[in-house]
């Protein structure tokens, strides 16, 4: 039997690998938002066409979450995670090779299909290695790393594009090598996932049975009933009852919450750099700094939410309101930030307010993951894929809505600058409020797989 210290080291390794994975996941995902003005100029795109490119990723991301989650539950997370990371890394690099709108849409769709499996199978790993009352920190840490990757993406992308275009490309032009900043950035980012896959494949092993053990509470006994795998071989769970899943109010509420949260998050990741450039007249490198500031707020909120989620569950001994209060409060803070931010004339002041709002909005992430793990039993990857995949409606809708509304305001109403962009903010605030209301109706004790947890 492995020692407690050995098990602790393995858990640290799991958290570290998942943190690096989600950092790369969001770095590869978010960088296109900062590169989009250059892609627009290079390929001659309008805002609505840009929204199609952004939506291609999001639609594939939602469509493939359940299938890749099923693969993780069936074959175990190790093989599936290594395969999907290599897949999306290849298509990250191929983004730099595109020559037109159609090829770019296809590449981003296939990129999204690969990224779809990362979070469901990460949730599977956390559920296999950590008992319920200790999952908040790894979930919060992983999501913090993801948002830090997203936060670094605008800054790193802007600086890389500037370096390639202003220094590296002129230096290599005489050798016959022609570099374009935004294209080279995607080539470089595509290598990171390959390196992670090699390291994870060499290191990972299946958890021992005592990885799930803690104090013998009824909830933990229930969790142990689902942890029948040995340290050497992955054993798939019993078939899932889809009738019970699809009639569960909690499943649909979690999907609605993720839809609302995704709408807000994808606005920041996909459109905020363009808003700063077009509406506020901010240059590319400075818009990268401002977007990074907003996304860092989300990263901090996710980390604090992880600690807070664990603390409240341990303090109160119940999940129903511990999870819901955190989630609802965070979404309402996000809504207030979106309403207030456009009132400021300074782009930095607007970004600071949105940073505070996004900090609140991301407080709910660990609680959301906690509820999904609480209700899913041994089918975490599949059900996480379903509930997270429902967020595609918010993510894709957000990407289309902002671009289409700005085009409408510009081309039909004759508006420009802030007059064309600022009206989108109240809409996103209303969406965040809807997510907060949905949180108040969530009951984490309603177990989908077999029975209600005490």
From TrEMBL:
Ranges annotated as spanning the membrane: 12-31, 52-72, 84-111, 184-204, 251-272, 292-313, 325-344, 350-371, 383-405, 425-442
A GO MF label: transmembrane transporter activity
GO cellular component terms attached to this protein's record: plasma membrane
Keywords attached to this entry: Cell membrane, Membrane, Transmembrane, Transmembrane helix
Gene3D superfamilies assigned to the protein according to its UniProt record, in alphabetical order: MFS general substrate transporter like domains
InterPro entries for this protein: MFS, MFS_dom, MFS_Na/Anion_cotransporter, MFS_trans_sf, Sugar_P_transporter
Localization in the cell: Cell membrane
Topology class, membrane: Multi-pass membrane protein
Domain of life: Bacteria
Domain Major facilitator superfamily (MFS) profile: 14-447
Name of protein: Major facilitator superfamily (MFS) profile domain-containing protein
Lineage, highest ranks first: Bacteria, Pseudomonadati, Planctomycetota, Planctomycetia, Gemmatales
């Amino acid at each position: 039997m492995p020692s407690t210290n050995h098990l602790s080291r393995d858990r640290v390794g799991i958290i570290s690998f998942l943190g690096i994975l989600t950092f790369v996941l969001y770095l590869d995902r978010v960088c296109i938002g900062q590169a989009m003005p250059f892609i627009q100029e290079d390929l001659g795109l309008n805002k609505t066409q840009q929204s199609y490119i952004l939506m291609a990723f999001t639609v594939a991301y939602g469509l493939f979450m359940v299938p890749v989650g099923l693969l993780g539950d069936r074959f175990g997370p190790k093989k599936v995670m290594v395969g999907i990371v290599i897949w999306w890394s290849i298509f990250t690099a191929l983004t730099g090779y595109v020559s037109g709108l159609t090829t770019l849409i296809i590449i981003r769709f296939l990129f999204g299909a690969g990224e779809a499996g990362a979070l469901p199978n990460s949730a599977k790993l956390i559920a296999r290695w950590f008992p319920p009352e200790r999952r908040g920190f790894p979930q919060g840490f992983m999501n913090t790393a993801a948002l830090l990757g997203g936060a670094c993406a605008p800054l790193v992308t802007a600086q890389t594009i500037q370096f390639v275009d202003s220094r590296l490309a002129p230096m290599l032009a005489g050798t016959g090598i022609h570099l374009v900043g935004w294209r080279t950035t995607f080539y470089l980012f595509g290598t990171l996932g390959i390196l992670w896959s090699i390291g994870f494949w060499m290191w990972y092993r299946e958890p021992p049975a005592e990885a799930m053990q803690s104090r013998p509470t009824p909830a933990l006994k229930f969790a142990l009933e689902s942890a029948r795998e040995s340290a050497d071989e992955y054993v798939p769970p019993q078939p899932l009852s889809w009738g019970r899943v699809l009639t569960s109010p909690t499943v649909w509420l979690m999907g609605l919450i993720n839809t609302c949260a995704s709408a807000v998050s994808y606005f920041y990741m996909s459109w905020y750099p363009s808003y700063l450039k077009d509406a506020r007249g901010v240059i590319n490198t400075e818009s990268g700094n401002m977007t990074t500031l907003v996304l860092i707020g989300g990263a901090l909120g996710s980390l604090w939410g992880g600690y807070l989620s664990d603390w409240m569950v341990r303090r109160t001994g119940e999940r129903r309101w511990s999870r819901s209060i955190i989630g609802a409060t965070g979404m309402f803070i996000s809504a207030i930030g979106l309403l207030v931010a456009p009132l400021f004339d300074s782009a930095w002041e607007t970004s600071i307010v949105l940073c505070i709002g996004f900090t609140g909005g991301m407080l709910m992430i660990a609680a959301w993951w906690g509820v999904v793990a609480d209700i899913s039993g041994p089918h975490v990857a599949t059900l996480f894929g379903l509930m997270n995949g429902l967020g595609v409606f918010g993510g894709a809708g957000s990407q289309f809505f902002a671009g289409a509304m700005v085009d409408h305001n510009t081309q039909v109403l004759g508006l420009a600058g802030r007059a064309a962009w600022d009206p989108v903010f109240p809409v996103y605030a209303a969406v965040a409020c809807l997510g907060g209301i949905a949180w108040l109706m969530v009951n984490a004790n309603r177990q989908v797989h077999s029975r209600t947890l005490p």
